């Protein structure tokens, strides 16, 4: 004990560790500039030295374990998630744990996570030292342990999800679900659906210069949708895809999953999605992604919803001319788009009915993006940090692919759809983005579509019926899933109830969760009386 008390590094070192970590946490969860952490750390150390924290007069040492160790660890997890992704979505955490994270591209995240673990161990050791050597800390830290638990958004979210189990009405969303159509159509245009990773429409603001210019140019000759906001459980890639292709938020299977300690074998098997509908219409379906199709259940989702061809990173790597031309997630977009072009040519040559090709790019992936060599040759050197460089690259490559396909007549009788899979997570222009009214990209071209701009208060759920109607499928009152077509005259749920109400209802919902995971969940409880379906009234 004596050697520890007389160490020249105490109490300076514990105060520095706690002060710097506190300052960093505050800058992560607020919009304060990064340099303010030094101000907070200096203020913390100054107060600590003034009050003689850790070396009080009449010090009484006790070998205790502070109450705040567990609350601090949980708060550290939240800060890490907020620092990595911007907005912490518990649904994403739960789903990825269930669906699997094989072949993720987060090699850099592993290093960052290790740094966080080391830092948290240092914080816990510092708090323990202070509590053992200062009786004032022993008394105060018990109160702060409760305060830290109370302010942790992670625990607040867990509490809300737990409360859903005993909610009085867990069927609010399920009552509003409308099954998509199954009638066969005679006019069946092809479909090229391009998900542009994290390329939200917010980047079209003048604040970001010309980064979004190529998508603006495409939008000038097509139908541009504005106001597609992000509700809970739609804010990561698989959730955005499922919302836009199935009309439902991705509610993780959770305790409904019968084999809790085994990976999922199906993804939302209880609802019909775009693939099921188009397969019923005789379409040939392909999903092509730059990242692994094994990550987060992408392959399970597309194969389970009747896509005949599902390819990702693991399929492209053996065919690369240069095996080193890859990034931490998979292949670059110029490689992916060459495969998309090859797939469309194959379908055109076969001439055996309509086709649909869905692809997911990587260039805009947070935090810095993955611009291809094609873009570097065009735009100059990449500094490895500027996300706007990657946004420009992603937008230009998408435009270039479409214009090349059009020039060769490969997109005749084809609906081309470009959309972001979700709003971006934390990037180099995070403060500018979060200061704006953010919304997702949705642009439709071809198939007799006249240039127009449609602004609605909508979510990604509404993309599903909008897409179906653009393909010529008639919908009952312009609705499918939980969405309303943005070209129809029925109100969206966001217009009728507001986004806050939708998110609140989602946290209380249990019946829709059972619907999504039908077959993986225990038998649904039979209602005492039939439940009447609710249709949102006209605007």
Automatic annotation (TrEMBL):
<dbReference type="InterPro" id="IPR000917">
    <property type="entry name" value="Sulfatase_N"/>
</dbReference>
<dbReference type="Pfam" id="PF00884">
    <property type="entry name" value="Sulfatase"/>
</dbReference>
<keyword id="KW-1133">Transmembrane helix</keyword>
<keyword id="KW-0472">Membrane</keyword>
<keyword id="KW-1003">Cell membrane</keyword>
<feature type="transmembrane region" description="Helical">
    <location>
        <begin position="143"/>
        <end position="159"/>
    </location>
</feature>
<keyword id="KW-0812">Transmembrane</keyword>
<dbReference type="InterPro" id="IPR017850">
    <property type="entry name" value="Alkaline_phosphatase_core_sf"/>
</dbReference>
<feature type="transmembrane region" description="Helical">
    <location>
        <begin position="35"/>
        <end position="52"/>
    </location>
</feature>
<feature type="domain" description="Sulfatase N-terminal">
    <location>
        <begin position="189"/>
        <end position="472"/>
    </location>
</feature>
<protein>
    <submittedName>
        <fullName>Sulfatase-like hydrolase/transferase</fullName>
    </submittedName>
</protein>
<dbReference type="InterPro" id="IPR050448">
    <property type="entry name" value="OpgB/LTA_synthase_biosynth"/>
</dbReference>
<feature type="transmembrane region" description="Helical">
    <location>
        <begin position="64"/>
        <end position="81"/>
    </location>
</feature>
<feature type="transmembrane region" description="Helical">
    <location>
        <begin position="110"/>
        <end position="131"/>
    </location>
</feature>
């Amino acid at each position: 004990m004596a050697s520890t008390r007389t160490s020249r590094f105490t109490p300076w070192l514990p105060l520095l560790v706690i002060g710097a970590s506190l300052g960093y946490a505050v800058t992560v969860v607020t919009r304060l500039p990064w340099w303010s952490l030094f101000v907070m750390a200096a203020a913390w150390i100054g107060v600590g030295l003034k009050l003689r924290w850790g070396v009080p007069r009449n010090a009484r040492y006790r070998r205790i374990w502070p109450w705040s160790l567990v609350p601090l660890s949980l708060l550290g997890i939240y800060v890490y998630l907020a620092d990595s992704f911007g907005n912490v979505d518990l649904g994403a955490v739960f789903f990825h744990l269930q669906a699997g994270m094989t072949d993720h591209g987060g090699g850099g995240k592993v290093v960052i996570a290790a740094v966080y673990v080391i830092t948290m161990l240092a914080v816990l050791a510092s708090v323990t030292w202070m509590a053992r050597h200062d009786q004032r800390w022993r008394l105060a830290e018990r109160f702060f342990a409760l305060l830290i638990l109370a302010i942790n958004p992670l625990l607040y979210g867990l509490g809300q999800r737990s409360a859903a189990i005993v909610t009085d009405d867990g069927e609010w969303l399920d009552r509003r679900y409308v099954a998509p159509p199954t009638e066969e159509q005679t006019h069946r245009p092809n479909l090229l659906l391009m998900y542009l990773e994290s390329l939200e429409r917010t980047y079209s603001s003048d604040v970001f210069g010309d980064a979004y210019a190529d998508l603006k140019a495409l939008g000038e000759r097509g139908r541009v949708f504005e106001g597609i906001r992000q509700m809970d459980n739609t804010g990561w890639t698989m959730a955005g895809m499922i919302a836009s292709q199935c009309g439902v938020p991705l509610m993780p299977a959770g305790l409904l999953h019968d084999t809790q300690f085994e990976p999922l074998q199906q993804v939302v098997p209880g609802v019909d999605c775009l693939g099921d509908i188009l397969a019923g219409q005789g379409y040939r379906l392909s999903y092509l992604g730059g990242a692994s199709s094994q990550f987060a259940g992408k392959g399970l989702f597309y194969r389970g919803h009747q896509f005949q061809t599902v390819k990702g990173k693991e399929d492209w790597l053996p065919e690369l001319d240069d095996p080193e031309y890859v990034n931490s997630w998979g292949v670059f977009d110029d490689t992916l788009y060459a495969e998309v072009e090859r797939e469309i040519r194959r379908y055109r040559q076969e001439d055996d009915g309509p086709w649909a090709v869905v692809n997911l790019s990587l260039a805009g992936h947070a935090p810095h993006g993955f611009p291809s060599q094609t873009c570097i040759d065009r735009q100059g050197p990449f500094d490895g940090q500027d996300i706007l460089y990657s946004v420009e690259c992603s937008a230009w490559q998408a435009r270039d692919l479409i214009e090349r396909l059009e020039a060769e007549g490969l997109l005749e009788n084809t609906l081309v759809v470009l959309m972001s899979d979700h709003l971006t997570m934390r990037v180099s222009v995070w403060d500018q983005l979060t200061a704006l009214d953010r919304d997702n990209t949705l642009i439709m071209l071809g198939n007799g579509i006249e240039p127009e701009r449609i602004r609605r208060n909508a979510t990604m759920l509404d993309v599903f019926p909008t897409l179906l109607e653009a393909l010529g499928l008639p919908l009952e009152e312009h609705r499918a899933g939980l969405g309303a077509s943005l070209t129809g005259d029925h109100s969206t749920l966001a217009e009728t109830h507001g986004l806050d109400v939708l998110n609140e209802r989602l946290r209380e919902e249990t019946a829709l969760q059972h619907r999504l995971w039908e077959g993986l969940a225990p038998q649904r409880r039979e209602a005492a009386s039939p439940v009447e379906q609710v249709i949102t009234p006209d605007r």
